[in-house]
Amino acid sequence: xxxxNDEYREYSKRHAPRTHVVKNIINAFxxxxxxxxxxxxFFSIYSAAGLDQQAAxxxxxxxxxxxxxxxxxxxxxxxxxxxxxxxxxxPITGFANSVVAPALEFKTEGFITGTAAKxxxxxxxxxxxxxSASVIYGLALVLLGI
Length: 146
Prior knowledge:
The structure is a single chain. By secondary structure, the chain is mainly alpha-helical. It has one domain (21-144). It has 7 helices and no strands. The chain has helices at 5-15, 21-48, 53-73, 76-84, 91-105, 111-118, 123-144. It is extended, with a radius of gyration of 21 Å.
């Protein structure tokens, strides 16, 4: 069967499953909001336990990273992501997932060349550009005298 690029594009459009945009947006919103509410719950618990605001925020972040990593390791995070899509990309849990998922995927290649080497395949560029942007922003503030 010979097709031009345009014919193939039309064929694939007709046979592709329809996306439910409104449903996807609603699911992303409530799951992302739920993750944020859980984070706020941990923050409140740590604050009530006597931690100051900065320490409670740090403890909350560590807890969310651990939960995100554990859910990824158990295969639950992927099931949540199938329902919520972008709602699971809430920065802290999404970051934990982006580090743990490649590490698990490549663990058969060994600890050094598999897990350790592939761990930051997804998260690495985010870290590099985040640090680079903060350095540029900091330099701009220094140069402007702010």
